[in-house]
Write a structure and sequence with these properties.
128 residues; alpha+beta; 6-stranded antiparallel β-sheet; globular
């Protein structure tokens, strides 16, 4: 079951098994604030086991588009669409967070979807 992330009262719920739970909770709250302020979208996450299709999507994008495989256990995931952009996030136990693994669904004819992804890691943690 998904839970909407409160960006005012930041909680580590769902991230407790990570040694970087506080930092991940801050990153998650920051994403929630961004999507609420920019798109009036409630950023909601679910346990990774509850949404295997989201995890599979992000795993595929990372592997095929960036040649990246993350060995850390996934904790939480979310996928949603705002203003024609499909966004997906996976919060990993190691503190690595693929940000914005998604594609632009351009409504114009003859334009190809553009997959994009960037990695963010909690301070002091490398993306290995």
């Amino acid at each position: 079951m998904r839970k909407v992330i409160d960006f005012v009262d930041v909680s580590t719920e769902g991230l407790e098994s990570s040694p970087y739970a506080d930092a991940l909770a801050g990153l998650r709250a920051n994403e929630a604030r961004y999507y609420k302020n920019k798109y009036d979208h409630d950023f909601a996450v679910a346990p990774a086991a509850d949404e295997p299709e989201t995890l599979a999507y992000v795993t595929r994008v990372l592997a095929e588009e960036r040649d990246i495989v993350i060995a850390s256990p996934p904790l939480e995931v979310t996928m949603f669409e705002v203003e024609g952009l499909r966004m997906a996030y996976v919060f990993y136990q190691s503190g690595v967070l693929p940000v914005g693994a998604g594609d632009q669904r351009d409504v114009r004819p003859r334009t190809r979807r553009q997959a994009c992804c960037r990695l963010q890691a909690v301070r002091g943690h490398g993306c290995t």
